[in-house]
Amino acid sequence: MKAAIYNSFGSASEVLEVVEIDTPEPAHGEVLVKLNCSAVHPSDVKKRAGGFPDLLKDGFIIPHSDGAGVIEAVGRGVPHSRIGERVWVYQAQYGRRFGTSAEYVSVDSKRAIVLPDNVGFDIGACMGIPAMTAHRCVFADGPVEGQTLLVTGGAGRVGHYVIQWAKYAGARVIATASNPKAEAECYAAGADIVCPHQGDELTGTVADMTDGQGVERIVDGEFGGNLPVLLDVARTGSTIATYASMQVPEPSLPFRRMMFMDLTIRLVLVYAIPEPAKLDAIYDVTDFLEKDLLQHRIAHRVTLEKIASAHELVEQGGFYGMVLVDIE
């Protein structure tokens, strides 16, 4: 089969190559998926650049965790009735070497989720990291109906789904954005109001919408950099769910202030969330896909042979939506 791999860390154009390797055989409990497309996420780019130094200790890597395709074979312990199912795949390259940037991937059967007939493979490939991370951030700490939820970076890959999950669950949503295009993306996803990331407009809007009490929930994508303003807009007893802190990787916590606010800090890594929470997310994703309730954004698509350009696009940013690699 054709697969994009890397044998060393470095820039996309220098280390990514498309090669012919053996098609995997599904082991016990696994399914073999013939992939239609693969999604590129910031975590995939960081791995390839060397963010996880031990990643290559056992050999080359086939990158990417998310994708979609059709089950062509099953291993022992998996019903043969699964052959022919259209599926979306998540967590393919977590804790292992072989991901979805290939013609085939063999994964645990529970990581290959039936894709409704009305949904394309391209949309299926978008469901893993962004939609499931957003679901966990919104619902990990109980219902949000009637609450006010702040999502920082609402136009981002995760933020876009956070807005939608929260609105469908009955929350009022305040989103932050850095420019008019991002603001429009947030409103299109359903945000009630959009503000700058920092400053008086944000704090004033939160005060107006919450009668000065602050928001009950915050979903944040830059914890270290945003923490000071988050504490200004959070109410006592609120929860901050965060999934990234790139600007300030090791933030310093104002413990006394946070303690007296009785805050809950929820750190979300999609791979490590409890299996029941993954099942909850999968159930809701499937339901919403069947009913065509979610908006999705695909910004760029490239062929497998041009996978380096897909990684470069994610690194460069400046757009809203997913980058996909078309395998077929």
Q: Layout of SSEs?
A:
Elements: E1 2-5, H1 12-15, E2 17-20, E3 30-40, H2 42-49, E4 66-74, E5 86-89, E6 104-108, E7 112-114, H3 121-124, H4 127-139, E8 148-151, H5 157-168, E9 172-176, H6 180-189, E10 193-195, H7 200-209, E11 215-220, H8 223-233, E12 234-242, H9 255-260, E13 264-267, H10 275-290, E14 298-303, H11 307-316, E15 322-326
Parallel strand pairs: 8-9, 8-11, 9-10, 11-12, 12-13, 14-15
Antiparallel strand pairs: 1-2, 3-4, 3-6, 3-15, 4-5, 5-7
Helix pairs in contact: 4-5, 4-10
Q: Key terms for this structure?
A:
single chain; 328 residues; alpha/beta; Quinone Oxidoreductase, Chain A, domain 1; 2 domains; 7-stranded mixed β-sheet; 6-stranded parallel β-sheet; globular
> What is Rg?
20 Å
**Helix/strand structural class:** alpha/beta
Mean pLDDT: 97
Query: Which word captures the global form?
Result: globular
CATH class of the largest domain: Alpha Beta
CATH architectural name of the largest domain: Alpha-Beta Complex
Ranges with pLDDT <50 over ≥5 residues?
Answer: none
Question: How many alpha or pi helices?
Answer: 11
| Count of distinct structural domains | 2
